[in-house]
Amino acid sequence: MSEQGATKLSPKVLLIDPVRMLPSLLIPLVGVLFVGGFSPRSFGWAAFGVLGTIVFAVVRWATFSYRLVGDRLEIRRSLISRSVRTIPLERVRGVDISTPPMHRLLGLAVLKIDTGASGGGEQEGELDGVSVAEAERLKDVLLRSVRAARAAGAATGLDGGPEGHGSVAAPPLAEGQAVHRPGGASPDTSLERPFEEPQEHVIVKVPRRWLLYGPLSGAFLFTPFAVAGGAIGLLFQWGDQLGLGRDAAWNAGRWVWDHPILIVAVVLALIVAMPFVAAVMYAVFNWDFTLKEREGYLVAERGLVTRRSVSLEARRTRGYEIVDALAERRAGVVRMWAIVTGLGDSETRGQLLPDVPRPVALEVASQSVGPFTAPLRPHPPVARNRRLFRAIVPWLALAAVPAVLAVATATPAWWIPAAVSLVLAGLGVPLGNDRYRSLGHGYDGVRLLSVRSGSLRRSQAVIERRAVVGWRLRQTWFQRRAGVLTLVAGVGAGKGGYEAMDVSEEQGVAFPAEVTPEWLTPFLTRD
Amino acid sequence: MTEAPDPPAGPLRDPHHRVSPKAVRLWLLEAVVALVLFAAGSFLLAAWIPSWSWLPLWLSGNSWLVPVVVLVPATPFLVVEPFVRFAVHRWELSGDVVYARSGFLTREWVFVPVSRIQTVDKAQSWFERLFGLATLEIRTASHAGSSTIQGLDHTVAAGLAEHLARRAEELRDDAT
């Protein structure tokens, strides 16, 4: 465990900060110049503004410091008010290093410390602008001292709070890793060996040709429209700022309205652009996705422009979630997230794999948590009726409104929305059936349970039995009439609860009784 | 995917303990307050509606319909709810597992093993204090594995909270 004096961020951030503030400063500056009629005085004010920004950045840099003291990291700010944020090292759950473009140019990085605080980003630490070497060093120190403290606790048998439990939780995982690992690191990497060189072992490096699967996930598909919308908004805003006024905008709008072919062409172009833009965006975010195992941490690195590295403590992994959209299922690819206890923002941080072929994902899953081979049990047929009802009836109701209006007002145009709704209701038949087919729950009889649901975005969660902290059965009035209920496994990780939707009343009791018989038996009336 | 047979298990039995009978009075009081608020709101709306020119005449002319439409369906629900709740709400602590049932239109059964409990809170609202009742909030690391038992007698709630906290300390199992 190292001690050191207070350290400042790299002075090179001073090159980044003013540039980052520039966009928000640009419009006022231009405004000052315009209002002042480009007089020497207005240039003086503008220069004053720029100077102020730089001074602000310098003062902020000079008053920000961090240091490692014993078993905690202190982050001090004294710009406006003095504040010291203290992060006990035992609370560190993971360290996340990212390098946005400007940072990368200057050899800097942003270090984020995940403390697993449930209160959002409030209690987390961020060091924006340390050198890459320093970031790596800090990461090693932070993660190592955590492990050292834990190892010491385990060795002396001190059950020092929740962390002392490590000695109990670790063995099954270490065993599983040693057995399944195909060569590479020595089998004892996951044992506690606090003071040696970090040993790395690449689990998966996603080949670049798999980036082509990206658009199948539906992610970023609507980016072209978002960009177009943003551009129009910006145009109006800047038009106002530059004194073009509403009239010009109005005239331009009218001119466009008079050329409907142009609108159609633009919309068509945007639609055609959808998969390509999505592919590019996806590739930028998931470039060279690499999943490594380093000293008991799962490290996921990705990104082209901003390279992001997320460390998850393998010991805290309690399961995984496999997600595939409709098109992905056709292509046989899936995405995967880890279910980790005490991980904030698990939707972005917990991602273990982007789109990869299913067997690859299952291999990684069985290495890090264990293979789930048990069959999933289907839910009762009445669940199918409920899925179908929900997928069809709302659209039928929606179709009825314009249909009635069409008849009542004798306006044939109303038939168009009615027809669209009817088509959507028709699509509800395969959708409802597919949603029913997705439903399932299972238990391998030893360690892992699983629930699955969804169609357009199907998701299967596999969770360790020991992560279950309670069960909840929920039955709405409609479910009671259908004789089904929703079973929720409370899990102190990931989303907090994983649902088996519309199980029969017998299954709803039998499943918890099978997974955790010691909890349920006292409350069953066995005949 | 092959089908696996569901393992046999008998149906659930009711939890042993009812909540305090005083809870019915509390819930009735709450229902009356809700009813008064609904009534006041709907009468206010009815008095206001005739001044809205954009409404069709048949609606703004018959604004007395608003309280009727609001209160006629709401009243039986609010009056029946306390009694249904009293029949449904039950709890039990056996084998170091808290088993609680609750709900009105939507029923919930919750099983929380004491070994996974993180905090036990005993809360008392202003109305609950009036009747000597309390609500017990049993929290685990997951919202889905947490339980709230309403309408307990204050002394029962205090004793249960004390017992659960002590027992949770002994059984603490932090695999989560």
Automatic annotation (TrEMBL), chain A:
Ranges where the YdbS-like PH domain occurs: 61-140, 449-505
Keyword field: Membrane, Transmembrane, Transmembrane helix
- Give the span(s) annotated as Disordered: 176-196
- Per the record, the domain of life is Bacteria
**InterPro entries attached to this UniProt entry:** UCP026631, YdbS-like_PH
Regions that span the bilayer: 21-39, 45-69, 210-239, 259-285, 388-408, 414-432
Question: Mind telling me what this protein is named?
Answer: Putative membrane protein
UniProtKB/TrEMBL annotation, chain B:
What is the recorded name of this protein?
YdbS-like PH domain-containing protein
Q: Which residues form the YdbS-like PH domain?
A: 89-163
Q: Which UniProt keywords apply?
A: Membrane, Transmembrane, Transmembrane helix
* Residues of the signal peptide: none
Q: Taxonomically, what lineage is the organism? A: Bacteria, Bacillati, Actinomycetota, Actinomycetes, Streptosporangiales
InterPro entries, per the entry: YdbS-like_PH (IPR005182)
Question: Which residue windows are transmembrane per the record?
Answer: 26-49, 64-84
Per the UniProt record, one Pfam family is: bPH_2
